[in-house]
Write a structure and sequence with these properties.
single chain; mainly alpha; 320 residues; binds benzoyl coenzyme A
Length: 320
């Protein structure tokens, strides 16, 4: 590496160490830029694909109140996807390229959205556990070293807190309801517990990107630290609901001051990540179809923007 690049990298690292945010026009190592594009776009795609499992229940929500709340939540996910695509674009990649990477399967999205939503109780479990796991991960990202990503996360976290509460409220209603409703809540918890723990990614020892991402303060806590914090915060909520988790090894460890939990099925995790989960193909087909059928909307929006731009130019010429 040339001495100039070396000294640029040293200066870059010392800014990171001093907690100074990196902004789009600042010099940055190419690997930092690529890592951020990978992570932010994976995050954006997760928000967008994450609309599908819940969108599946909008027409079947059990009351008008539940329907409007779920609709608002799913719309929030679209908004999160858009802030995150915008943050990724500041790194010099276009929206079209990002979408192309999702639709061709080149870019990943969170494993969790490849599981089916088979009952209304899943709206509770997703809001409570999936958004709960997302918040655990995203609160640290409000302090990530890249300015546009950190700022997007502040708003996203506020909205995710509402999502988590609406999910827990559904779980409380079901768990305190009839025996059938309580059984629905338990069944949903059984199905979403392990996939939620997998959301945090592989164990630290198997996490290829963690060491460098922690050094660059893109990530501020490791996958295992966050997973442990999630289990510790969810367990009192599970107990309050009067439900149980599908893990015979889960118990409080007085000495550690944390819950111990059983081994995650990493074969299942990697199989889902590689495209072979229960709904991977269905999710991709849905997104590809929506993209194709939405082409005329994008074209109309572009034509409208062009018309407005031309009108503004004409107006300026008149004034001049
Ligand atoms: N699923 O070295 P590692 C939401 C991949 S959505 C799939 O630890 P890293 C919501 C990883 O990409 C919330 N792939 O990676 C929306 C890497 O493969 P590549 C989504 C995963 O990046 C709607 C390889 O495994 N949140 O809130 O240091 C409704 C090795 O992993 C997963 C975010 O995206 C996974 N779960 O750490 C409700 C947060 N885990 O890329 C809710 C932002 C790992 O080398 N992302 N992989 O081919 C992150 O914080 C980090 O990217 C991760 C992984 C902690 C996820």
């Amino acid at each position: 590496m040339s001495p100039e690049i070396l000294s640029l990298e040293e200066r870059f690292q010392s800014r990171i160490d001093a907690e100074i945010k990196i902004e789009p026009k600042d010099w940055m190592p190419e690997k930092y830029r690529k890592t951020l594009i990978r992570q932010i776009s994976q995050h954006a795609h997760s928000e967008i694909v994450g609309m599908l499992p819940e969108g599946n229940w909008i027409t079947r929500a059990p009351s008008l109140r539940r329907k409007s709340v779920l609709l608002a939540k799913v719309q929030d996910e679209a908004g999160h996807g858009l802030y995150l695509y915008s943050a990724a674009e500041t790194l010099g990649i276009s929206r079209d390229e990002l979408v192309e990477q999702l639709l061709t399967g080149k870019a990943k999205y969170s494993s969790i959205f490849n599981y089916p939503t088979t009952s209304w109780a899943d709206m509770g479990a997703i809001g409570w556990l999936v958004d709960g796991a997302a918040i655990m991960n995203q609160v640290m990202l409000t302090r990530t070293s890249y300015g546009p990503y950190a700022r997007a996360m502040v708003r996203i976290c506020k909205e995710e807190s509402f999502h988590q509460r609406q999910g827990y409220e559904i779980m409380m209603t079901l768990a305190k309801g009839t025996p059938e409703q309580k059984a629905m809540a338990q069944d949903s918890l059984n199905r979403w517990w392990w996939p939620s723990l997998m959301m945090f990614g592989p164990n630290d020892a198997a996490s290829t990107h963690s060491a460098q991402s922690m050094k660059w303060k893109i990530k501020r806590k490791s996958n295992d630290e966050l997973r442990q914090a999630f289990v510790d915060s969810a367990m009192p909520q599970v107990e309050y609901l009067g439900l149980t988790v599908p893990d015979p090894d889960l118990k409080w460890n007085e000495e550690r001051g944390h819950y111990d939990f059983g081994a995650i099925d990493w074969d299942e995790f990697w199989s889902v990540v590689k495209g072979n989960g229960p709904c991977n193909r269905q999710r991709m087909r849905t997104k590809q179809k929506a993209h194709k059928e939405g082409a005329w909307v994008r074209e109309a929006a572009m034509a409208h923007a062009e018309k407005r731009r031309q009108r503004a130019v004409e107006q300026d010429e008149k004034v001049a």
